[in-house]
């Protein structure tokens, strides 16, 4: 990836790791568009970084994706980097009465939405000589979380589609990158009694990986998770999920970025 002069779209870009990525791309001399479902969050982000372009859109819906892609097609014909970062995350039990609703929401946001946006924005991306599609998954692709099983399933699915898309596009100029974060200090991880990476450090590592041409950017403790999932899968699954149970994280309706 070239360091500057890119036009970047970041979904879920108003807060957390999305905003941290927006900041580092801006500082390096790139044009950055962020979208989110909450206008107030977008306005706050633009107050911090006046160069940001903001678009209100709920990418988990067909209508929201249409709004976003229409804006991009009309205003940003040089778009060459799509970062699918928007996500929905909940702590729930598979036997809860509302689990299927949770599963549908998280699949729509975390899996269907990125694939739909890739399809809809492909006509713009394929006209560029240096296009990159970035899908943000999770360390849970290596070790699923029992208390966040819907989220884990959606991210495992996105990892599979990312790998498949990379293979399908191997003869084109479009790069397909998977970013696999550790636990980062965001609203999603509020209350967890574990060490959290700062959003700034995470964004720096992702940007560095993109510059170096990495197709799979595994950050922080997710590297250890990847290794242990290969050499001791049953042990690490039981240990991580036992530790999560002990943390007694308060259940909430969830987080949508």
Automatic annotation (TrEMBL):
InterPro entries membership: NAD(P)-bd_dom_sf, Sc_DH/Rdtase_CS, SDR_fam
A GO-annotated cellular component: membrane
EC number, as in UniProt: 1.-.-.-
Record carries keyword Oxidoreductase: yes
Keyword Secreted: no
Keywords carried by this UniProt record: Oxidoreductase
Domain of life of the source: Bacteria
Top-level enzyme category: oxidoreductase
GO molecular function, one term: oxidoreductase activity
Protein family per UniProt: Belongs to the short-chain dehydrogenases/reductases (SDR) family.
Record-given protein name: Putative oxidoreductase
